[in-house]
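Page 37, continued from 36.
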């Protein structure tokens, strides 16, 4: 048999070929490892609606938390804040799709209990935000202390009225636990801070849209004529009542305290047409909701109840650094808006 003698140049060439082969193999292994990386946990975030600025802030907070924790947010909710059936269907669809977790602001404290229970049975943890649910199935509740917010509004209105006068309370909608708590807190607060103030109407509902709230507000103003103070328990109710007061030429003449904020309401506050707004922290609500959901998924410690705070904004404090930050979250940074 004839032997092949490898010279130095041949040895060098063979070494380079082997190195190249080994290098290519490592690159393939790296690519395979990358393609096999665990996918991001999918968290469905389901608001009550999608039109009010409050929900946009929640969305922004949820997106920030998702980026920090490595989650993927799927944002979907009903168009109107009174479409219970649509929200139930959204929850059911996400359960069928097998998302990893759900963060939900329930439209109705009873109607959403069953679909939440179905999610938990499928091993999909649920974190409730904004509005409570009559169920023990969810992992955590992240929300404003709405009862306290209602009391703050009562205290402000009573002070403005000097403890006397006639007051209207405009409710939001039946079954909404968050606004029911605000309304209960307001009534408790009026007993404490304004026991001599007459509550001439406390049982009327604004409904889910600005237009319905405007019509309900007009009906109240026409029915009761001259009143001294008004409280409205959410953004749409507050804006609807503001518009009715403006249309009737009573804006700024009737002491008016509402809940939530948007550019229209803040402009009215600046003009003296609104005397106080109980402002939540929806950005923090969305943020803490998603962070809590991720903690549940990772089996890390988490709080069963997270209070995201409430601040009564007036002309006196609206320009403070703390309130400015609360009122103007960076939506563009997180939502591209």
């Amino acid at each position: 048999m004839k032997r092949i003698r490898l010279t130095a140049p041949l040895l060098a060439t063979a070494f380079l070929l082997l190195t190249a082969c080994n290098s290519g193999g490592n690159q393939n292994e790296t690519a395979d490892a990358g393609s096999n990386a665990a996918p991001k946990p999918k968290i469905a975030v389901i608001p009550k609606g999608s039109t009010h600025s409050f929900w946009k802030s929640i969305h922004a907070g949820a997106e920030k938390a998702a980026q920090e924790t490595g989650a993927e947010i799927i944002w979907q909710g009903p168009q109107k804040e009174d479409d219970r059936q649509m929200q139930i269907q959204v929850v059911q669809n996400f359960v069928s799709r097998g998302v990893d977790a759900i963060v939900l602001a329930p439209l109705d404290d009873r109607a959403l209990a069953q679909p939440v229970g179905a999610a938990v049975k499928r091993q999909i943890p649920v974190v409730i935000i904004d509005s409570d649910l009559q169920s023990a199935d969810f992992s955590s509740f992240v929300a404003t202390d709405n009862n306290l917010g209602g009391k703050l509004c009562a205290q402000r209105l009573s002070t403005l009225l000097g403890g006397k006068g006639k007051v209207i309370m405009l409710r939001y909608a039946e079954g909404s636990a968050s606004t029911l708590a605000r309304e209960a807190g307001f009534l408790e607060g009026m007993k404490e801070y304004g026991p001599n103030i007459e509550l001439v109407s406390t049982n009327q509902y604004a409904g889910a849209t600005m237009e319905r709230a405007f019509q309900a507000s007009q009906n109240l103003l026409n029915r009761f004529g001259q009143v001294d103070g008004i409280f409205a328990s959410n953004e749409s109710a507050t804006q609807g009542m503001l518009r009715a007061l403006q249309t009737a030429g009573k804006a700024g003449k009737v002491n008016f305290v509402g809940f939530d904020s948007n550019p229209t309401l803040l402009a009215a506050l600046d003009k003296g047409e609104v005397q106080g707004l109980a402002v939540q922290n929806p950005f923090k609500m969305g943020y803490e909701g998603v962070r809590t959901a991720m903690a549940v998924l990772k089996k890390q410690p988490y709080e069963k109840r997270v209070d995201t705070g409430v601040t009564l904004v007036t002309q006196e404090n609206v320009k403070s650094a703390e309130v400015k930050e609360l009122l103007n979250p960076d939506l563009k940074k997180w939502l591209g808006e």
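Confidence is low (pLDDT under 50) at residues 1-35. Flag for discussion at group meeting. The domain at 146-280 is CATH 3.40.50.2300 (Rossmann fold).
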